[in-house]
Every structure is written in structure tokens, then in C-alpha cells.
Amino acid sequence: MTKHKKIALIQMSCVPDTQANLEKAATLVRDAARAGANVVCLPELFRAQYFCQREEHALFDTAESIPGPSTELLSQVAREEKIVLIASLFERRAPGLYHNTAAILEADGSLAGVYRKMHIPDDPLYYEKFYFTPGDLGFKSFNTSQGKIGTLVCWDQWYPEAARLTALKGAETLFYPTAIGWHPSEKAEFGEAQYSAWQTMQRAHAISNGVFVGAVNRVGHEYGDVIHNGVSIPGPGGAGLEFWGGSFIADPFGRVIAQASHDKEEILIAEIDLKLLEDTRRNWPFLRDRRIDAYQGITSRFLD
């Protein structure tokens, strides 16, 4: 297996119609593959406008099984373009049981596996606990035809334990499908600092674990309107969310080697050299020097 490969992040905007978003995503993935990408990652819950801006039971009807309609189409794309593809979906696992799930599709179109989002937020306009059961598969590394990759999802970005455990499973690149943005009333005062904190946290994951990181976000101002199978489900009203884009790829030294804008759709592509993992870890041997005998308290909620 070659140590050099190209990874692509699909920074896209989303319309209310779920089928239109799926077809658009498939087209953008093909474009990325034809630009040379070997691994492609879509943003979080790309099939819909970000619907967790309110609690609405009708939105559970937009969930789907895995395998299901989205993976059927995207598996075909992965097979025809000979790429590994990461697709973040609203998974219906069983009646009344739903997850925020990343499906990893192999270059032959098969399902390599799934990762279910472990950390579920509950903040103003991010009411995910209403919809998603926390993942029960743990942190995973997938040994694909394009190397060992790990997938974490959005709110997982803020937890060093998640990145560490995924890297310890052998992941060489961590992908973070994301839907994060500004509350319009906060952007002027806090917007720059919020984005900086988001990027800094993930660059730190790259450094501390000696891995590549790809964080892919959506763009656009969304009000949470959804149209699914011809049924319209209005958003909650109000100012909505402005998704800040800013997708980026960082190397194991924490350097940003590719970055997208805050307001445009882009296919962000970077060539990565997996030999850099070995070189970086030799000079920054964090994994060697970990005091695994002294970390017992890490599984406690708080140490009084």
C-alpha cells in the first residue's frame, strides 16, 4: 500500500430537500474522486438542513437503516470511483432507537463498518439528545484499502480521550464530520474565538497523537426546514444558525496543510504522507512516554 494518498473533505451547503442533498453529495464525491482523492469525507448529517434546532417527533421519519437508501447510492459511487467514503447519517437502528452514525464505505462498495457518535450535545439550537442515543460501539479504527482511518463526529471533537483511544486503535487519520456554526447574535463578539478554539482543539489531537486530522463542516445559514419524501417539516423559526465552514486538514505536527473558506462550498483536497507519522512520533514520542500506570482517575467523572 502506498504511503502517499489524497484525502478530500466535502464542504457543502444543505437545502431542505433530503433527496436533493443526497444527490448533490454523490456528485461532489465523484468530483473529489476525479480530482485524485482516495478517501472522501462528507459533513455531519449532510442529508438535511441541521434539524436539531428544535425537538420535533416528525423528524424521526427522516432516519434510515444502515445499509439503506443513502448507503446504497453512495456505495455505488465508492465502487465506481474506487475510493473509501465516510458518510454521516441519521441511523434508525430499531423502533424508537436512533443514532448519529458515520458509515465507512470501502472502494469495492462494501460497508467496512459504522461508528456511532459517542458524545451527544444538548445546547441551544443543538438539541441532539432528543434524537440520538449515545454510541455503544466504542472508539474504532477501520483498516481500509486506503489505510487505517478513524471517524469521530462533531461534539466528539472536544474530547482528547476520544482522539487518543481512536489513535491507540491504530488510526493514522482522524476524520471529523461536523455541523457547527455561530448563533447570529453571538458571532460579532465570540465568532472568531469560537472558530479558533474549534480548530486549535483538533490540531492538538493531531499533535498529541501523531496523526493526520480532517475536520469537515457545512456552510450556509440554515433554519432547520426539512422536506422528506414530499413531506415538509418547518423549522423552529428564529434567527437560525450560520455554519462557519472552515474545514481543514492538519498534519501530525499540527500544521494546517489545507483550509477552506467560511462561506463557500469547496472540495478540500490534500496529499498526505503516512511516513510523516513515523518521523513525527520518533521526535515527539508521546505514546512512548505515557504514564499508563498513573491514569486510573481518567474514568472518574470528577476527582474530589
Walk me through the structure:
With 304 residues, the protein is α+β, with helices and mostly antiparallel strands. It has a single domain, classed as Carbon-nitrogen hydrolase (Nitrilase/N-carbamoyl-D-aminoacid amidohydrolase, 4-Layer Sandwich), CATH 3.60.110. The protein is built from 6 helices and 17 strands. The longest helix is centred in the middle third of the chain and has 23 residues. The mean pLDDT is 97.
Q: What are its keywords?
A:
six-stranded mixed β-sheet; Nitrilase/N-carbamoyl-D-aminoacid amidohydrolase; alpha+beta; 29% strand; 304 residues; globular
| Residue fraction in strands | 25-35%
Judging by the overall fold, what is the CATH architecture? Answer: 4-Layer Sandwich
Mean pLDDT: 97
**Quantity of strands, as a count:** 17
For this structure, the CATH topology is Nitrilase/N-carbamoyl-D-aminoacid amidohydrolase
Quickly count the helices. 6
Give helix % range. 10-25%
Element string (H = helix, E = strand)? EHEHEEEEEHEEHEEEEEEEEHH
Strand order of the largest sheet: 5-4-3-2-1-17
- Output the CATH homologous superfamily: Carbon-nitrogen hydrolase
Q: Return the CATH class.
A: Alpha Beta
Biggest sheet layout: 6 strands, mixed
Report the radius of gyration as a whole number of Å. Answer: 18 Å
Number of domains: 1
Stretches with pLDDT under 50, minimum 5 residues: none
Distance between the termini: 49 Å
Short description:
The chain has 304 residues and is α+β, with helices and mostly antiparallel strands. It contains 6 helices and 17 strands.
